[in-house]
Amino acid sequence: MKIAIINGPNLNLLGKREPGIYGNEPFEDYFLKLKQLFADVELEYFQNNSEGNIIDILHEIGFTYDGILLNAGAYTHYSIAIRDAIAAIKTPVLEIHISNVHAREEFRHKSVIAPVCKGTIAGLGMKGYALGINYFL
Ligand code: DQA
């Protein structure tokens, strides 16, 4: 079972970025825990701040992986190009948000990628990634 996590813009700053919203844990630390929790899964982690690079990653892995957990960050709310990339690939994509986007600013309530994703996990903190992996298993 091959599963990838793709984190988009500003998520490289997890641990430092708005800790009241996103917590204190760097994603690299949490990823080590995920690797231990899901020792039998081939887990890959990508992070990129650029829309085009995220699209390239989706194209590269989206025909061979069994599942993708995508936290597209702010691109979630307006990137039709990322939406089209998700629609173009074969691998199912789960939309992940650490924060409860629906309890935040109005511009975060809309997701342009949600209709082409298998489902959405939002507001459960880092645990959302573990829950997403469990779904694919
Ligand atoms: C986020 C929510 C987005 O609105 C925001 O732009 C992010 C992170 C989340 O994980 O809660 O960068 O995707």
From TrEMBL:
One Pfam short name: DHquinase_II
EC number: 4.2.1.10
Site feature Transition state stabilizer, where: 17
Reaction(s) catalysed (UniProt annotation): 3-dehydroquinate = 3-dehydroshikimate + H2O
Top enzyme category: lyase
Gene3D superfamilies the record matches: Dehydroquinase, class II
Pathway membership, UniProt: Metabolic intermediate biosynthesis; chorismate biosynthesis; chorismate from D-erythrose 4-phosphate and phosphoenolpyruvate: step 3/7
Active site: 22, 97
Sorted UniProt keywords: Amino-acid biosynthesis, Aromatic amino acid biosynthesis, Lyase
CDD domains attached to this UniProt entry: DHQase_II
GO molecular function: 3-dehydroquinate dehydratase activity
Function: Catalyzes a trans-dehydration via an enolate intermediate.
Entry's family note: Belongs to the type-II 3-dehydroquinase family.
Quaternary assembly: Homododecamer.
Stated name of the protein: 3-dehydroquinate dehydratase
GN (gene name): aroQ
